Amino acid sequence: MTVAAGIGYALVALGPSLSLFIAFISKKPFLILTLLSSTLVWLISLIILSGIWRAFLPLNSTTWWPFAILIFSSIAFQEGLRLLFWKVYKRLEDILDAFADRVSKPRLYLTDKMQIALAGGLGHGVAHAVFFCLSLLTPAFGPATYFVDRCSQIPFFLVSAIIALAFVTVHTFSMVIAFNGYAEGNKVDQLFVPSVHLAAGMMTLINFAYGGCVIGIPLLFLMAILTVMHCGRMVWRRLSESQRQVDS
Amino acid sequence: MAQNQRPKSLLDSLGEEIIRILTPVSICMLLVVLLVSILNSSSSLYVTSSIATIAYSETGSDSSWDKFIGALLNSLVFVAVVTVATFILVLFFYLKCSKFLKIYMGFSSFVVLGFMGGEIALFLIEEFSVPVDCITFLVLLFNFAVIGVLAVFMSKMPIIVTQGYLVLIGMLVAYWFTLLPEWTTWVLLVAMALYDLAAVLLPVGPLRLLVELAMSRDEDIPALVYEARPVTHHDSASRPVQTRIWRERQNARLDSEDSSSLNSDLNSTVSIVQSSHNGARIARVEEGQVSQRDAELSAPLIDHRMDAQDGLSTESLMLEGMGLGSSGAIKLGLGDFIFYSVLVGRAAMYDFMTVYACYLAIVAGLGITLMLLALYQKALPALPVSIALGVLFYFLTRFLLEVFIVQCSLNLLMF
Predict the structure, then answer these.
(1) Transmembrane ranges (chain B) (predicted)?
(2) Of A72, B65, B66, B224, which residue is the least packed, with the fewest Cβ within 10 Å?
(3) Is B196 a catalytic residue?
(4) In total, how many domains does chain A have?
(5) Range of the structural domain that residue B352 is part of
(6) Is A18 among the domain residues?
(7) Which residues in chain B are contacts of A45 at CB distance < 8 A?
(8) Given A43, A57, A205, which is nearest B403 (Cβ)?
(9) A28 to chain B: which residues are within 8 Å by CB?
């Protein structure tokens, strides 16, 4: 429904990411490059998944269990890719530290590493929002709107924008938690991220039932808030630890 | 906060040069996508007959194989014209007619900004019903074109004006290319990427000859080149932006496409504009001059200036080139801007999902090319990797990803 509505839906999905981008990432060119490469990596993961599943589509939309398998396999693949992403990041960190030594600048601080993780997570979130929500928004710029049967109270575009917002939050902060978990060897953190991702994905299955989105979407936001809180706690703990180390 | 007392971290300035060249490329692509989505939604089948469709005019009713063969013929003709024009350019450069080339390039820029810009402005005026009269429009357009020519060829203008006009020229030419029929556009992109590869890497390639001539004579190649602002650091003396400095250092350059073909295209499209008012006389006169009009709208260079320290290892050069410790600036030929934007513009004609995918692919290709440049330290073509990735991602997205995403999204299932 008109350009204003289209821009509105886009901002619902990507507004917080835009703020994060302008506040933190646009100031450091390396983080912009990290964001772009992360988005590319997750796009490639989506393309590979769609290549694997192409033969089985279109799925019968009355039964829910093929979709469950689809979501489960996709999330498993993406979590595996996250581990690979971490390994590549480790190598990059070593190169950057060696380079810093050579030009006699300080090595990467803890906040630097967390910012790189944040940029990586934001790339993941932006990839999700762009491909699942933004690319389908083109009709929203026109004169009409579209409703889905299963969730007929609000337009489809708004529903997908809201879901995309929740997922962007989950993805962005999961990456920070995951990187920190791998760096510290913290099993809780390492397991937290895949389970939250899986739970969030499975919760969208609730949308399958008629009127299910009234229950599914608030639960999804619960997961997002959980992720943010856990990330905040973890970051606070690490920063105060490193501050204590510096002071002592 | 404790951060203010710490010395500046490594992350603050790493990679700045790459961003300075990525930003204008992204802006150009964004503008072309906007133009395409605004102007083409009115679904006017404005088929430009230009030199790129001289062999075969695509109609909707032909079979796929016919379209493919037709597109192939078109692209071969186009690439042949480009090759001939580049060789003529090399000849002129060899005979030291640089002044003539510069004047001719100024004239081409004027024509692009004046006529193509005017056409597109007219489309926009029509689309949005802007109330403006002819005389005002002519005066504004003339001033716009003249300042553009001055900005591109005089170095006394503020650099932001020069950069802005270069991006605008790239956008205008790219938009005209997107008006070509679909199959022709894709095959043409692939053909140009292959041509670029051949012209720069083969010993007999025209672009390589041009670069070697320019290097041996210590002269500038007269061409349109986008130059990112050099990164100045507080510890290094600010160097004047002279192109001669890089001759003494190690330099590695990327060569991209020269678009002398654009001029031929330009002639025919200009002739289309004029022939609708006058007869075909002008059209024939213009097209007859194709072989003589050989100046380029875009230069074959990505120029990477390095710092004066010799004996640097490749790795440090690679990272050094990303802005730390070097005052070098990356230059990118306008042909790269144009063909990247054509790819993205054509993707926009299908759907926005392909636009995002192709954008990421092109940026990745550009990054890879810059890394290869730092690794190999010699002239490299900038088109092939990006165009290859872009085309690949376009077809993958169109045929695989879209079905998958739409299936999931419409059932409100996301992960």
Answers:
(1) 21-39, 68-94, 103-124, 130-153, 160-177, 183-207, 356-376, 382-406
(2) B65
(3) yes
(4) 1
(5) 10-229+310-411
(6) yes
(7) none
(8) A57
(9) 11-12, 14
Which is the catalytic residue, given B265, B294, B303, B336?
A: B336
Question: Within a domain: residue B246?
Answer: no
Domain carrying residue A191:
3-242
Rounded alpha-carbon distances, angstroms, from residue B140 to A97, B114, B121, B133, B326:
54, 10, 11, 11, 41
Rounded Cα gap, residues B413 and B415, in angstroms? 7
Contact between B323 and B341 under an 8 Å Cβ cutoff? The reply is: no
Q: What are phi and psi of A186, to 5 degrees?
A: -85, 110
Longest dimension (CA), chain B: 75
Q: Which two tokens stand for residue B374?
A: 């730092």
- Which of the 8 DSSP states describes residue B311? S
Tokens of A144: 């009409």
The residues, any chain, with a CB within 8 Å of residue B9's CB and separated by 6 or more, are A105, A106, A108, A109, A112
Total residues belonging to chain A: 248
Rounded to 10 degrees, the C-alpha dihedral B330/B334/B339/B341 comes to 80
User: Is the confidence metric ipTM above 0.95 for this complex?
Assistant: no
Pairing of strands B331-333, B380-381: unpaired
Q: How far away is chain B from the Cα of A186, in angstroms, using its nearest Cα? A: 25
B133 catalytic, yes or no? no
DSSP, collapsed to helix, strand or coil, labels residue B66 as helix
Query: What tokens appear for B356 in the block?
Result: 């995002």
Pairwise CA distance, residues B6 & B116, whole Å: 53
Do the bridges between strand B251-255 and strand B225-227 make them parallel or antiparallel, or are there none, so unpaired? unpaired
Domain membership of residue B322 (yes or no) is yes
Neighboring chain A residues of B319 at a CB cutoff of 8 Å: 95, 99
CB pairs under 8 A between A and B: 167
Which of B12, B196, B235, B351 is an active site residue? Answer: B196
Is residue A247 domain-resident?
Answer: no
Q: What distance lies between CA A32 and its chain's CA centroid?
A: 16
Full pLDDT tens readout for chain B, 415 residues: 444 566 777 777 788 888 889 999 999 999 999 999 888 765 455 555 666 666 666 666 677 888 888 888 888 999 999 899 888 888 888 888 888 888 888 898 999 999 999 999 999 999 899 899 999 999 999 999 999 999 888 778 888 899 999 999 999 999 989 988 888 899 999 999 999 999 888 888 888 888 888 888 877 777 777 877 766 654 444 333 333 333 333 333 444 433 333 443 333 333 333 333 333 333 333 333 332 333 333 333 444 433 333 333 333 333 332 222 233 567 788 889 999 999 999 999 988 999 999 999 999 999 999 888 888 877 788 899 999 999 999 999 999 998 889 888 888 888 8
Whether the Cβ atoms of residue A152 and residue A93 lie closer than 8 Å to each other: no
Asked whether residue B284 is assigned to any structural domain, the reply reads no
| B353 contacts in chain A (CB < 8 Å) | 131, 135-136
Does residue B274 fall inside a structural domain? no
Tokens of residue A37, six digits: 């490469």
When CB atoms are compared, the residue of A135, A167, A246 closest to B353 is A135
Find which of B360, B368, B413 to mutate to test the A interface (most A CBs within 10 Å of its CB): B413
Give the torsion sign (CA, A119, A120, A121, A124): positive
